[in-house]
Amino acid sequence: MEIQKQLKRDFLTTLLSQGKRADERGKMDYRTTKVQKGVLQNSEGSALCNLGKTQVLCGIKFDIATPFPDRPKEGVLATGAEFTPLGSHLFEPGPPSVESIELARVVDRGVRSSNAVDLQSFFLEEGKVLALYLDLYVLDHDGNLFDAATLAAMGALQNCIMPKVEGGKIIRNENKGSLPLATSCVSCTFAKVDAYHLLDPTLDEEKGMDGRLTIATTPKHMCAAQKSGWAGYTQKDIMELVDISFAKGDELRRHLQ
Question: pTM of the predicted model, to two decimals?
């Protein structure tokens, strides 16, 4: 496996030294991106994101929950990710993998830190709040699940309707309008190979990368970041990638309109 990774890395480095990528994109170009909202009939909100050949589906459901002890007046936001063999030969059935947990946490952190959803508005009564569950399903994995999943989650939130609540219970099949959102959150993921940075890495590029940096932004501020792999980043690298994330974030948000 290490030999295969080294061969992938050598191939990528050779291409990048010539200013090329295997799929002929520029280093800071996204693959063809599409977000379809309202693709599920029985969820409170849903969206399917296609990022090149990568496909991630997000569905939203509401339920009644007990608030966390340190936040008794706030609702609950919970994000989960399913990696089933349907999505890739790399996925195996069984308990959540480290990769699926990381994906869920990165998406959750971006959405939560953006303050797009007002969790205080989910308060119902003492000891009882609304819980919003964001469920992510990887249908096809060809790299950069982070950005595809964040787009799917944001599209589902924009498509989401608020359930009607009476007597501390949700009245299913009735709603009271769209979920109010304060902003929109997207993420930009960069793979590092030697001294080169690549936006929106494919699965092949991820196999040969030294490290990865995901930066989540709203139109006004950077709200989260996640680094993985052994590659190091200078302050100059990070500041340049943050600037690119804001510019590319505007591009991604157009797919959500």
Answer: 0.94
